[in-house]
Design a protein that fits this description.
130 residues; rod-shaped
């Protein structure tokens, strides 16, 4: 082989290596840029999801607070109902006691009054007229 042929082969080999290096470098650069773009998109999606999660958390907290308020109101209403039921029961007992006392007084008055019979029929009629 002549020297010129060897020089041409070496120059061609060097040019091929340089072209190969340039292609490899360009490919690597494109791959890095593609990965950067993908990372930017993932970060954007992560920010969006973080905002959505925070919004969902705030909604959940708000609903929990509303539920606690509703439970407190229900407990308050239940306590009021128990109090009213107890008061009604006391009033019913007192009314029964008063009724018994009135009946006892009527019986005693009927027993003492010489003008009425012991049956209480006339007294019942008189009470109904009032």
């Amino acid at each position: 082989m002549s020297t010129g042929t060897i020089v041409v082969i070496v120059v061609v080999a060097v040019v091929v290596l340089i072209l190969l290096a340039l292609v490899t470098s360009a490919t690597a650069r494109k791959r890095r840029e593609s990965r950067r773009q993908e990372a930017r998109e993932l970060r954007g999606e992560a920010r969006t999801r973080s905002v959505q999660a925070e919004s969902a958390r705030a909604s959940a907290d708000e609903r929990a607070a509303q539920a606690r308020r509703a439970e407190a109101e229900a407990e308050e209403l239940a306590a009021t109902a128990r109090k009213n039921r107890a008061a009604a029961e006391r009033q019913s007992i007192e009314a029964e006691r008063q009724s018994d006392a009135a009946r006892s007084h009527h019986d005693e008055a009927r027993h003492l009054d010489p003008d009425t019979s012991d049956s209480g029929y006339e007294e019942a009629v008189a009470i109904d007229r009032d």
